[in-house]
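Reopening this one. Same input as before:
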Amino acid sequence: MKFSVVVGMQIAGPLNKLEGALDRVMEELVRLNTVDPSISLDLDKDQQVEVSVVVDADTPEDGVALGASAVRTALHAAEWHTPGWPTFNPRSVGAEIVDA
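Same output, byte for byte:
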């Protein structure tokens, strides 16, 4: 099954470099051959960024693990740090079956 996985994050640090950093994240998601990667940004609401990808998995839990791994790999390639990564707010990460 294909799952759409969305990872929501709050951005910390200088915003003047954010566009270039998000470009690097997207480039890495493409390089990783993720399906249908997208990034959305809301600077007016607590500097929120959502990164989504579509993954093949047997269960929603496996989908979250695969999608979150791809997103974290892309963040690290863009030289972002994810020190609190293993602790997710349940509303921040989800998997939904999609027709892709």
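So the earlier flakiness isn't reproducible anymore. For the record, The chain has one domain: 2-97.
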